[in-house]
Structures are given as structure tokens and as C-alpha cells.
Amino acid sequence: MTISPRPLRADAERNRRAIVDAAGTVFAKEGTAVTLEHIADVAGVGVGTIYRRFSSVEELVAVVLEEKMTRYADRTEQAAQQALTEPWEAFGDYVLFMLEQQATDLAFSEVILAPATATDLFRSEIGRALDASIQLVDRAKEAGAIREDFDHSDLYLLLNANAGLIRGAGRSAPDAWRRFGQYLLQAFRERGTETLAAPPAAWARAGRARRTAPKQPDEAPVRQVTEPPA
């Protein structure tokens, strides 16, 4: 017989909500390199209250960002679907969407580049977004919407560069990500006249492995987007 977990008392639930809300604010503005003590101060609770619910900052990051990662994965799948009929619009809008998400949430920017997170759901959503972004890039290239030497790993290049821009100029130029993205989109669309350097080997291998790896039996299925009839 399965026994459902007892619901939190009203005051305990209020404290938990205050902690999660405060953590979301702190993570968005400061990133994940913060302490539970700092979050407790912002939430207006004792640090012991946080430790009764969350064992580490990493666990709290995963809880706070789970919902956002689900929305991010959904948006990536929508872009892959749109690329069937509007490949350039789908790709361009998605690139700017990614950059804006980074600019408005430093923790999100950190975890999509190094997703060492605590929950299965979080990891599953990261994987779902990755699979859909590979579909998006492949479809945009097949349609001739972006240059043929664009590699999926160039998205990592873009995200890492934008992360540095945000860290370095986020306070003085919070909207710089948009101009940066527009410049890069022009480059992605141009037909190259010179051979580019190869993409970083580790990133390129990761993308190839994701394309070919069989799904594990216990892995959450990724929603597939079907091809249109010929």
C-alpha cells in the first residue's frame, strides 16, 4: 500500500514558497554562486528553515529552474516544428529567445552551459531541448536558411560568448545581447567565402553522440516532430 506524503502545514508551505521565490530572485540577479544564508536573509527565514527543506544550493537551483526548463524545452520543440515551414524565422527567433533568457536569468545562463543539476526532471528537460535544437539546426541547414558550415555546437559558442557579455556588461548595457545576437544572425546567414576553423572537438562529438545514441529504457521519451508528407 502506497502512503501519500503528508501535506505541509500552512506555515511550512508559506516558508517553502518564500524560500523558492527568494531563491528565484537571487539566482536570476546573481547566478548560482550564492549561499543558503544569503537566500535565507532575502526570504526572511532562518537558515535552519532552508536546510530542513533543501540540502544544498544545487538542489534549490534545480527546484527553482525546473518549471523554466520545461518552458525552455517546449519553446525549442516549437522552433523545430516551425522550421519545417519557416526555417529562417524559426532559427532567428529561437537564437534571440535563448540570448534573452540568459540575459534575464544568470542562473539559467549558467545551468544550460553546465547542467550539473539535482533532479531527473531537470536533466530530462535539458535533453529534450538539446534534441529539439539539433532538429532545428538540421532543418534550417537543409532548407538553406543558414550557412552550410554552421555546426550545432556553434550554439554553445554563441551561448558562452553571450554569457561573458552579460557578466561583463550586464549592468551597464543590459540590452547588449540583442545587438550581439543580430550581428551573429547575419553571420550565420551569410555564405562563407573562407573556410572556418573546425568547431571545438568535444562539442562536436557531443552533438554527434546525441544524434546517434539509443534512448535508455528508463529515459523519458522525447516528443518527436514528424516530417511533412512529400
Average pLDDT reading: 84
Euclidean distance between termini CA atoms? 52 Å
What is the N-to-C succession of helices and strands?
A: HHHHHHHHHH
Fraction of residues in helix:
55-70%
- Write down the CATH class of the largest domain: Mainly Alpha
Secondary structural class: mainly alpha
CATH architecture of the largest domain: Orthogonal Bundle
Radius of gyration from the CA trace? 20 Å
CATH topology of the largest domain: Tetracycline Repressor, domain 2
Q: What is the molecular shape?
A: elongated
Region (Disordered): 199-230
DNA-binding region: 35-54
Organism: Antribacter soli
Domain HTH tetR-type: 13-72
How would you characterize this protein structure?
It is built from ten helices and no strands. The model is unreliable at 217-230 (pLDDT under 50). It has helices at residues 10-30, 36-43, 47-53, 57-82, 87-104, 106-113, 120-142, 154-169, 176-189, 201-212. Helix 1 (10-30) crosses helix 2 (36-43) and helix 2 crosses helix 3. The chain folds into two domains: 9-55, Homeodomain-like (Arc Repressor Mutant, subunit A, Orthogonal Bundle); 57-212, Orthogonal Bundle (Tetracycline Repressor, domain 2). It is elongated, with a radius of gyration of 20 Å. The longest helix is centred in the first third of the chain and has 26 residues, at 57-82. With 230 residues, it is mostly helical.
